[in-house]
């Protein structure tokens, strides 16, 4: 007999996914295979892949292969000992961004604890090459904590991405259970150090809810991120990718997400996007644009107050 903890919650109606495999979708899938590229959209089984690929023609590129050295209990990306290290990958990413005519691109990677630099060198080269080929495209990067090594972060930040995104993923209490090898405080330190290196580069982080956290813990996570100078926050519903992964403890309603976003903005984030299907790179271009508007408005307000 199944116990309460063994039961799998039924997905509510608002989590139904619309499948769309139109020409945009098939063209993007074909291009990824032809250029031997990976996307987190596919590898992490993102629920938004049909909307992003078919309707918005956007994708989040995943560099450094498809095998992660960590085995986080929420993530569908395969784990093991990576063998992939392709020095030409930055060129193929840059050309793909050009072919897709992207105004904003998100580049993430598997965790590569097997590499001395944590993959920061390839990250930096991908930023530089993408910018050379696509000078009007804004570049957002989503790295792992790279072992918390300061020099690795500096290598990446010296390439000056337009936005640095590193996900805290969950509240502090649940971090040891949810994230393999990662540490809550180390992620906060990475975000703050990135801001210290280049104060003008916006920082961003994301959490999943539905893993057993309390509302008070969500609010504390907001405070922790703000204390470490994070500008943008996203909040999304955790979805169990396979039966081997952590079970969903709660499905939050759209109304509850709306309230969380309101609290986040009131606390001081320049932008917060929250919703059942929101992921850190979901509508990333809109998040960056909105944050830039808010930042400009705040700057104008301060300037006017100074002149009065």
Can you put this structure into words, describing what you see?
Belongs to the radical SAM superfamily. Lipoyl synthase family. This is Lipoyl synthase. Keywords: 4Fe-4S, Cytoplasm, Iron, Iron-sulfur, Metal-binding, S-adenosyl-L-methionine, Transferase. Residues 54-270 form the Radical SAM core domain. It is an enzyme of class 2 (transferase). The protein is of the alpha/beta class and 308 residues long. The protein has a single domain, classed as Alpha-Beta Barrel (TIM Barrel), CATH 3.20.20.70. Helices cover 41% and strands 12% of the residues. The protein is built from eleven helices and eight strands. The chain has helices spanning 23-34, 40-43, 49-56, 89-100, 120-133, 150-157, 175-178, 184-197, 215-227, 254-267, 284-307, and strands spanning 38-39, 60-63, 104-109, 138-142, 163-165, 203-209, 232-237, 271-275. Strands 1-2-3-4-5-6-7-8 form an eight-stranded mixed sheet, with helices on both faces. The longest helix is centred in the last third of the chain and has 24 residues, at 284-307.
State the low-pLDDT regions, or none: 40-44
Level of helix content?
Answer: 40-55%
Which strand order spans the largest sheet, edge to edge or round the barrel? Answer: 1-2-3-4-5-6-7-8
Query: What is the CATH architecture annotation?
Result: Alpha-Beta Barrel
**Gyration radius, in Å:** 19 Å
Q: What is the makeup of the main sheet?
A: 8 strands, mixed
Shape: globular
At CATH level 3, the topology is TIM Barrel
For the record, the CATH class is Alpha Beta
Structurally, how many domains make up the residues?
1
Structural class: alpha/beta
Number of helices: 11
Distance between the termini: 72 Å
Overall pLDDT: 82
Using DSSP, what is the number of strands? 8
Beta content comes to: 5-15%
Output the helix-strand order: HEHHEHEHEHEHHEHEHEH
